[in-house]
Automatic annotation (TrEMBL):
This is Type IV toxin-antitoxin system AbiEi family antitoxin domain-containing protein. It holds the Pfam family AbiEi_4. Residues 13-58 form the AbiEi antitoxin N-terminal domain. It comes from Cellulomonas avistercoris.
Length: 318
């Protein structure tokens, strides 16, 4: 990014400000010989903009998210690193950065609150690096899991992070360094699945509340096969019984099955004589017992000789 304003800065501070995305603290400018009166005149004239207390962006145009994040780091001071939701956005497993920049600082430091910055204090600061100093991917994932509102939200964070390239074994290693972590057993359950079955909160609910709770045979997860000359992947396959289950989250398919879904179901039926059952949140979460009953009927029709069980006293579907 070329910033013409940098060309007018004294040489001692020019390179530093360029590395900081055109953002600088008043202390840095003062050390370069630009006192408060000079800075004040440029801000009042609209040439520079004050983002946080003691931190400016040295141009008059739109301020990017990266510059806001850089300014928050400078405002938070020594040892600060982007963390939590902000770090998740940097690591690409959180879709939006949120209205404030979240930074973590060492516990011995006290940072005065400012609008637009949320400060967390940590006894142990994880390794942070990159162009924007940022808490690493694995500790960021566990930070977000720790603050997740419920188990579904926690599973969603884990699945999004793994899809973004976070390695499960590294998350487990990081988990071992924490004496207190909410949803610890859940993280180990999801990441420790040898069949890599869980890719969404809906899949975990299905495994737990439909198959396991009702004593149905265990399906195989994430099965990839060539059907009709194309690679397809089934969420769950009951091998040898000719039954498949596809789990469609509302956000993934807000208007029902896609054209590709329809083609895949037809091709599976024609080539493999396998039945595809499709379930959504309303079926898995809202009526897991009825879903299990329907699934058991399909399995019985295809040769399963087992008997489903009631998941509890109120289960009247199996």
């Amino acid at each position: 990014m070329r910033l013409p304003a940098l060309e007018r800065l004294p040489p001692p501070v020019r390179a530093l400000v360029a590395r900081q995305d055109g953002v600088a603290t008043t202390a840095q400018l003062a050390r370069a010989g630009m006192g408060a009166s000079v800075v004040g005149r440029r801000v009042r004239a609209g040439h520079w903009q004050r983002l946080f207390r003691g931190v400016l962006v040295l141009h008059s145009g739109p301020v990017s998210w990266r510059q806001h994040a850089r300014a928050a780091l400078l405002a938070a001071g020594s040892g600060a690193a982007l963390s939590h939701r902000t770090a998740g956005f940097v690591h690409r497993f959180v879709a939006t950065p949120g209205p404030v920049v979240v930074v973590s600082v060492p516990a011995h430091r006290v940072v005065r609150p400012q609008q637009g910055i949320e400060v967390r204090r940590r006894r142990v600061m994880p390794h942070a690096g990159g162009g924007l100093r940022c808490v690493g991917r694995e500790p960021t994932l566990l930070d977000l899991v720790h603050e997740a509102a419920d188990e579904d939200a926690a599973v969603g964070v884990v699945c999004d992070a793994v899809r973004a390239g976070v390695l499960p074994y590294r998350v487990v290693d990081e988990l071992g360094t924490r004496s207190w972590q909410r949803h610890r057993a859940l993280v180990l359950d999801v990441l420790g699945d040898p069949d890599a079955r869980v890719e969404s909160p809906l899949e975990r609910r299905y495994d737990r509340d439909v198959e396991t709770a009702h004593g149905l045979p265990r399906s195989r997860g994430q099965v990839r096969q060539v059907v009709g000359g194309r690679w397809v992947r089934a969420d769950r396959v009951f091998v040898g019984l000719g039954v498949r289950v596809e789990l469609d989250g509302r956000l993934a398919h807000p208007h029902g099955r896609t054209d590709l879904d329809v083609w895949r179901d037809n091709a599976v039926l024609v080539e493999r004589a396998e039945l595809t059952l499709r379930y959504r949140w309303a079926h898995v979460v809202g009526s897991p017992c009825a879903t299990a009953a329907q699934l058991a009927s399909a399995l019985h029709a295809r040769g399963w000789r087992g008997t489903p069980v009631r998941c509890g006293p109120a289960c009247g579907q199996v």
